[in-house]
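A note on notation is needed here, since sequence and fold are reported together in a single record. The reader may check this reading against the record printed directly beneath this paragraph.
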Amino acid sequence: MTNTPLVSIVIPVYNREKYVGITLDSVIKQSYTNLEIIVVNDGSTDKSLEILKSYELVDKRIRVIDKVNAGVSVARETGMMVSTGDYIFYLDADDILDKSAIEKLVCRALETGADVVTAKFVTRYKDGDVEYKGEYFDEMSSMDYLKLMLSHKAFFCVWIRLHKRKLYLDNDIIFHKEISFGEDALLMTQIFFYSQKVAFLDYNVIIYNRTEDSITDLDNISNKRLNELHRFPEIIDSFLQSKGVREKFDLECGYLYVFNMIDLISYKLYDYVLSDMNKAVYYVKKYPQIKKDIHRRFAKLITFFSISQRLGLWYFKRKFGVYPSFLS
């Protein structure tokens, strides 16, 4: 490759002593070598920092930043602020980067002129790997891709995407420090809004490692984080309103609210069911196609609530074993 722009890989780390060495090995062994590797230790209490320092000694491209714990959004922002690359790539500290990942992402970015390149990944569970099942396309406008993402037809995650650092320099992109579950959606909404073009790379760039202590596993999610998850659709809604494009995204916001309610029910947080159900009924009546894209059980739940709250509560109790909380 004759044109080799600098890529900043930003890795937030919090108590990942069991995995971060494997993650860093996958980064330093990349076929694409023009990298700056910014590792942000977010107040780890295990041996993560010690491991990071040992890697910093043997690879001059690695820069370790040690800070007090403030969450993944702050850690990513910290890394981004000190980065100098042409492109940014966020990587989690327990995932594994394919050896050719950055090379292929950069090649795709250069050949298409895309602001963002999104790719495939493999999810690794303890009992085996699951291949990518997502969108396939060549190139599209970022606004069209944003619509796909908000309607749950594309992934929210930041860690399969190479994007231009210039997007941060030219725009007021906010890292929402108060949100640690749903923060990917908040960041990517802004990235896609301020971009022009997205290109797809038909290649598995990463192994997404669903470890036993993954923060997205049900047993590891606190009520605080679930309440944060409940907030992120409203923040996205407000962002779109502030940019004067909310009406163009009304259908997608409908999908966002309905799927968020379903996610919270799946995570067994029932506090918002009754208030969220009003929005779900409204949007499903306005856009019947939403109902076709959700699980039959939840489609029936919305239907029963649209008839009467009493019937909806009966069906909810029948399917989930409890009545939802009456939270006003």
